[in-house]
Amino acid sequence: MSVITTAGTPGVNRFTRSQLLRTARLFATDPDLAHLVDLGAPERQWHRLDATDHLEIWLLGWPARTTTGWHDHGESEGAFLTVRGALTETTWSRGELHDRELGAGEGRSFGARHVHEVSNLGSLPALSVHVYSPALTRMTRYAVVGDRLEATGVERAWADW
Q1: Could you report the per-residue pLDDT of 23-47, keeping only the tens digit for each?
Q2: DSSP states along 9-43
Q3: Which residues bind Fe cation (predicted)?
């Protein structure tokens, strides 16, 4: 498996976006995933499945009508795949909101500094696998202010999570 560095040259510290989505698909096949989080919990839950400096994999449990809020993943590229239920990813482009619904088995990858909000708008719990490269070190939070997104703060890995 080849990987690229942040400068785009062959190396060992960043997976490609297609590799990230394939990794999410692979981990999503584990039949025991639903037992790692409480799908009946009132708030989102997450469980770290694996991590190195170059790759981090999370399982998220989504109660009905929960959301991440607007955020990015700093310098990490990522991918996520809906395992159960449906998730809606909302992105912001040129002052407009764009929604994409991802049902079970559907996923997407994204580049560094990709700003989005992911939500379970349904009435049943959802489950998803998220993969990041390199491992997450920070997330910037945003708020919609008029016709733009405005940064409201930065969360640092393990200090704030």
Answers
A1: 999 999 999 999 999 999 999 999 9
A2: SEESS---HHHHHHHHHHHHT-TTGGGSS-TT-SS
A3: 71, 73, 116
For residue 121, the 8-state DSSP code is -
Using alpha carbons only, give the angle 62, 68, 74 rounded to the nearest 5 degrees.
130
Question: Is 71 assigned to a binding site?
Answer: yes
| Pairwise CA distance, residues 120 & 62, whole Å | 6
Tens-digit pLDDT profile for residues 68-119? 999 999 999 999 999 999 999 999 888 889 999 999 999 999 999 999 999 9
* CA–CA separation, 68 and 89 (whole Å): 10
User: How far, in Å, CA of 84 to CA of 28, rounded?
Assistant: 10
Q: Confidence class of residue 161 from pLDDT cuts 50, 70 and 90?
A: low
Rg (CA), the chain: 15
Q: Domain 3-156 carries which CATH code?
A: 2.60.120.10
- Is 73 annotated among the ligand-binding residues? yes
